[in-house]
Amino acid sequence: MTKDGVTMEHGESSKAPLVAPAAAGVNRAVAVVDVFLRFIAIIGTIGSAIAMGTTNETLPFFTQFIQFEAKYSDLPSFTANWFSICQQFDSFCERISGSLIGSFAAMVLLVVLITLSAFALARRH
Fold first, then answer.
1. How many domains, the chain?
2. Paired strand residues for 71
3. Distance (Å, rounded) from C-alpha 48 to C-alpha 99?
4. pLDDT digits (tens, 9 = 90+) for 63-94
5. Angle ∠(30,102,41) on CA atoms, nearest 5
6. End-to-end CA distance of the chain
7. What element of type H or E holds 65?
8. Which residues are in the Casparian strip membrane protein domain (predicted)?
9. CA Rg, the chain, in Å?
């Protein structure tokens, strides 16, 4: 259709993909890495919570009838004398320390996921 010497075309659309094929592969790889890291972070968080919540150790004192017991629910009282308690209750402190390390690793993964999501959003715009 022409109007005042200018040709106008109506109804044509581009058949070109919205995302280049190479960029689509990168987006798919980022999505797979995102799902994998989320899965690892969830497992790490749940594992750490279970390890901390089920931690207990009994230490015999003088006889088998008198015993000291360390549980997760007693943890606030342990924070003041953490090193002296850990000298007595080795496996308790190892499990609590492992749980804290697992929680920290899951937190780092979640920060990586936030960064990855920010880059993915920035690439779209």
1. 1
2. 56
3. 4
4. 667 777 777 666 666 666 777 777 877 888 88
5. 25
6. 35
7. strand 63-71
8. 28-79, 80-109
9. 29
Altogether, the residues listed in the chain come to a count of: 125
Domain of residue 55, residue span: 23-124
Instruction: For 96-112, write each residue's pLDDT tens digit.
Output: 888 889 999 999 999 99
**Is 63 within a domain?**
yes
Q: CB-based burial of residue 121 (10 Å sphere; 0-12 exposed, 13-18 middle, 19+ buried)?
A: exposed
Measured CA to CA in angstroms, residue 67 lies from 52, 61, 72, 123 at distances of: 21, 5, 17, 61
Residue 52 resides in a domain: yes
Rounded to whole angstroms, the Cα distance separating 58 from 14 reads: 73
Domain-located, residue 50: yes
How many CA atoms lie within 13 Å of 55's alpha carbon, on the beta-carbon side?
Answer: 24
